[in-house]
Amino acid sequence: MAELTAPETLPVDVVLDFVRTLEAGGGGAKIRRFLSDEFVLVEAPHLLAPNGATRTLEQVLKGADQSSQVVANQKFDIRRTTSEGGRVVLEADWSATSVMDLRYWDSGETIRARTSSVFEVRDGLIVSQDSYDCYFPGS
Predict the structure, then answer these.
(1) N or C: which terminus of the chain has fewer CB atoms within 10 Å of its end residue's CB?
(2) CA distance 53 to 30
(3) Given phi > 0 = left and psi -120 to 50 = alpha, else beta, which region is 108?
(4) How far apart are CA 120 and CA 88, in angstroms?
(5) Residue 56: Cβ within 10 Å count
(6) How far is 87 from 117, CA to CA, in rounded Å?
(7) What is the rounded CA–CA span in Å between residue 118 and residue 130?
């Protein structure tokens, strides 16, 4: 009798599960299982980080834990994904409700951005994310 093996999780499925966990309000403990120990997030310059930013795993997990103090009701409307090998490109419309007054949005306003991210997945874990976020200024 042939031995059954569990199907390998595709890199695009890892990324989509990660995004859905973020959308559900997942803090650091919930997103940690998707990220490798060497994970790095690189953000291109955008409205909230004019010089861009590079964040380590520790910084990303801490930010995820603090995100509920800044936004609620995160939503990712996936527009398109492309995957080749371990590289996954995800394009999405992101929105969230500000729960505090921010530079461009008042508490209760909806923050919107068009996002594109390039993820590298290795051995079922995300090792890097390069993010290109275009925020729409508040009204």
Answers:
(1) N
(2) 23
(3) left
(4) 6
(5) 12
(6) 10
(7) 5
Closest among 7, 8, 14, 9 to 128, alpha carbons compared? 14
**pLDDT-derived band of residue 137, with 50, 70 and 90 as boundaries?**
confident
**What is the Cα–Cα distance from 27 to 42, expressed in whole angstroms?**
19
pLDDT in tens, 50-74: 999 999 999 999 999 999 999 999 9
Residue type, 62: K
Q: Any bridge partners for residue 2, and if so which?
A: none
Q: Which two structure tokens, joined as six digits, stand for 128?
A: 């890097």
CB 98 within 8 Å of CB 109:
yes
Q: Is 24 exposed, middle or buried, given 0-12, 13-18 or 19+ CB atoms closer than 10 A?
A: exposed
pTM for this predicted structure: 0.90
Q: What is the pLDDT of residues 26-45, one digit of tens each?
A: 899 999 999 999 999 999 99
